Protein 1
Amino acid sequence: MICEKEKCTGCFGCFNICPKNAIEMCKDEYGNVFPQIVKEKCINCGLCKKVCPQLKEKLDFKKPIKAFAMYNKEPNKRKESTSGGAATTFYEYILNNKGIIYGASNLFGLNEFKFIRIDNKLDLYKVKGSKYVHCYINNTMKQVKEDLLADKKVLFIGTPCQVSGLKSFLMKDYQNLITIDIICHGVPSQKLLFDEISNQGIDYRDVYYVSFRDDKLFNFKLLDNNRKILLEKKSYNVDYYNHFLKGDIYRENCYDCKYAKRERISDITIGDFWGLDKNSKIYDDEKKGISVVLPNTQKGLDLIKSISSECNIEERTIDEACKTNGQLNRPMKKSKEYNTYRKYYPKLGYRKTMKKMLSIKSKVKKILKRILKKV
């Protein structure tokens, strides 16, 4: 291990920096990936430890300069994005200005959920939407560096720890790089999601696209490569989704996340603007999606100004933006269900563990929701 296992975020920084490809990302019994050093290839250069953000005593955290509520003016773009369309708007601006974007794809047809490079607007659909699972960066950091050295404008959107891993890997600031972090609650392993798909009676090899959010809000949907719906259920009827929202099945490090606070590592922080006061000039319906956008650097603020004509946007207070966004204040706490998951999953597997994690209170709520839906 590069750092202690319970602290590792799986950011892939060490994997990308190794000059001898002596680091492999291996899965543990919960499906979470961790770096392992192949001793036969290692030359003891120490670069893996040098770039590991979890081993750094000090990181370059910055307080938000301002706070904005916004959503894209085009209804379809807002609908497709579900959180107001901030990410899509930033992506489009960079691509329109001949830049490159990097983001997590929810196309399972790529065999795993991973980051991809896009230089064409026709491919933008590949990175749209929420991804409530750990997405692998793989060798993307090397690609980002190549584009930066070629003097291309690059936009990278990921979780705070992934942004931190990228910046640590690069070892210097690049004026042509803009980083955006999403307000992350925590990430479950991909293995858990595949287990859920199998538990729903679906062969994961038939799944091409996974949707966690749509105009019905927290709606779990699986589609094949012809966009035919294989499964569609509300979050509370899907064990994986239900426990994701409750924070029961994340990586160990997520419960001690050093990035879950107002001070951030990126140029811009984005997420849902939950709790936007109804006195807001742009307030309409949170279910349609309203983004919170926090510029943490002048570079980030300049980008927001550049896309402001595409959006309904209003400055709000930083306190309001952070009040109902828990992960801008503290990391998620471990629950009793989390301890049950950790204890039983390696022994009993997914289905039996999910049954053990379901409390009597949760069972009653689940039944009531089904009854009310039929009324």
Protein 2
Amino acid sequence: MPLNSLPSSQGNQLFLNSDEKQLSLEIVQEKIYSFLFQIVKTWEPEDVLQEFKRLFIDNLDLENFNSQLGIYEIFDNNEDEFYSTLKRCCYILINNWETRRKSQYIQELINLLANFKNNINSTSSLSKKIYRSWLENFINSNQYQDLKLFAYKYEEQAKEDWFNRYTSYLLFAQSLDTKNPKEQQEAAAKISKKLKEKFKFELAMYSAHSQSDNASKTRYKNPTILGDNVLRLIKTIVLKKGVFSYENIANIFIKQTENQTFQEFKESLPRYLIFSVQQPIFVETIKQQLSEKLLSWLVDHNQEILNKNLLLRTCNRVIDYLTTENGREPATLFILLLSQGHSLTLVIVLLKIIFICRNSRSHLEVRLANLISYYKKYSEDECQWIINFIEYFNITFAIYADNVEYNLIKMKEADKPDDSQLNVDNYRVFSQLKQ
């Protein structure tokens, strides 16, 4: 069937006449996108899936030797444009289904592609063989792996690979990548936010009810992989939310550095980050390596008075030093600090950076996504240290979220009233979601 007569399952058609086929590929692509926008908003999802299958898969049916190539005619020999078109078509559907709360069909779209099987020994036409190989290449590409992330939220086997637990960061990175279609960015932002809110809610509910003796504690599952030890960790973190909390110390530091030169600020920042840190090796590592890197960076601006732009650039740079400097491999400092067993301390240092520059939060989460992408090629057993770091990060930043409040109530006195060491077992944690 020629391209200008593509019947749909709804009695409609994606109509491309002979004149339009002579126009630029971009114009034809826009007509396809407009068609999908229309049907995804007006048709039932099952019918939309059938239409998607008809456009991209049915024309390559090996059993139908007489069929034309349909939509594939517009691509000629341009495989990259095929990837771009197929990718955006997928995200038009995903974004609209996510908005309309029909998210279960995202998994069906993924399955539709996953079930495609190429047969290189087929006797079908050479063109059809080429286009089938294109589709197979897409399914084996990183672009398809990115696509699959949108289904992990609904897939029962979502935790088959360890990194799937941290899909929210991978999606967040997609949402900020301007190379991605706008529909992909929008859908990634929506689902990433939902996953983060879900984790915060589940952690708050688990921490509030797991200490009770009634049946309600079984209703709320631990969203972390730390087991019951997560309660001690939560209590330890919440204990720091008093007068000498990280927020208060950050506010003091911001006031102290308001009129500093950039060089003075670079000298002050490492001291702020290691303030109250009890691990001598961690302190010494930050003093030496981080300070050295900072002081040699942007020296041409040293005599400028600190401003918002320099603050943001510096905080983002420090995040790079502490996570990944090139967005591909982990930074030397990151490996060194975690190998020394300082996962939680590093998380607290990153939290302190965000408290003096909230706008660096996006940069930090993208860097976490970079680290996850790097380590996902390794097994869960090989990645326990990075997994623990991300778990500590999730918990700490959930506790300090704007819409959740955690408090500790002392349930019993310590055996030794003058004991300087606080025993978190004497406290009970309470959590509350703010309206």
Protein 3
Amino acid sequence: MDFQPIIDFIKTLYPGKDPIVLHEPQFTGNEKKYVLDCIDSTYVSSVGKYVTLFEEKVAEFLSLPDTRYPIPDTKSEPLFCVATVNGTAALHLALIAAGVKAGDEVITQPLTFIATANPIVYIGAKPVFIDVDPDTLGMSPMALRALLKSLVTRHRSLPKACVPMHTFGNPCRIDEIVEICNEYGIPVIEDAAESIGSYYKGQHTGTFGLMGTLSFNGNKTITTGGGGMVVTRNLQLATRLKHLSTQAKIPHPWEFAHDAIGYNYRLPNINAALGVAQMETIHEKLESKRQLAKKYADFFSTIGIQTIQEIPGAQSNFWLNGISFKNRQQRNEFLQLAVNQNVHCRPAWELLPTLEMYKQYQCEDIPNAQRISDTIVNIPSSPIN
């Protein structure tokens, strides 16, 4: 197959760009103004007005429903956000707050960035990998139920948490996952690192489970340079998360007293200043990315290549636009052509259970994840003007 028309079409979307990167940040609002204000205040570390303001703005945004659907019942419950230095730290804190301890098992998916599984192992817990759905690329409720039924039948202890991930911004069937886990008393912590601006059945991703986590890395839809956030509707959990993120220091005018092993995970004020400005233009960014996704879908439909699309009930932020090839060889041929012409395209991740440090952990049958890993390529997805 001749892949050059794909490269040529991508170049028409980003004229004058060399290289054309996979996803780059856009600073079109008050970023410089707020960062300079932060510097002038001298509060550039983890104390300052922008941290709190950023948390409030994100909580407000996540509370907005997708207007195409009835307002979810959870709309009346307030959301609490705790800003962290990155999404990995957010997930680490969330697992600790959920009570996961060394030796416990945590269900997650094999098709994800390694940061989904690493915090599980930080604690000394053990990931259990189950398959994904071929249309969402996220955790399969069917595979989840099969695993839990099997554990009960064999009188095995149940995992202490479940961490599904919204892959490339595409919502998984999170309502079914939460319902299944509730039946078995297993808390759900959503890895929504890639999915700010994504909704499922009218509700924002990251707000279905006990907690959700976001990332604001430099390559995300909204960036603070490096940053993350834990989201929850439980005020007691939010209070504990913030406490743990600030070294578990007990407030006092001068004493250095601590009541737990804490972490230096609080987002610095200077990063939060960037985030506040980014949140002011999030709707424009999301609309631009939706237009880009449509352009890609229209183009690829003319050459017989499948794009990753929303399932019924879902609204993706289209953080990354994915296309599907017939096999790994064809995928690699396209990737080599893209590299040669300075167009940054990337495959899905290598499946985590195939990595040396994760081979020792339990992995169920994962044919869907394997097929996706072999065939999916993400193409440049920065917002277009």
Protein 4
Amino acid sequence: MKISQKDVENVARLARLTLESENLQVMTSQMDAILGYVDKLNELDTDGIEPMAHAVPMSNAFRQDEIQPAIGIERALQNAPAFGDNCFKVPKVIE
């Protein structure tokens, strides 16, 4: 095993998760399988391969910034569940 049950307990504690013993054993074997797969990927020869952000070549997907007229208050509020005084009304969350 590449990861011990104690390591999984530590990760669970850091993530503020409470794991029962049977879940801890399952999680340990699953994490071990993940680490085994990553270790297998480390065996690949990646010399001469440039890192990439996308699997297919992409050009800049962002549009140019252009000044456009505002959509207006009425249109901005037309789908709001509640509005008044030209503002969105939201439930109070702080008492």
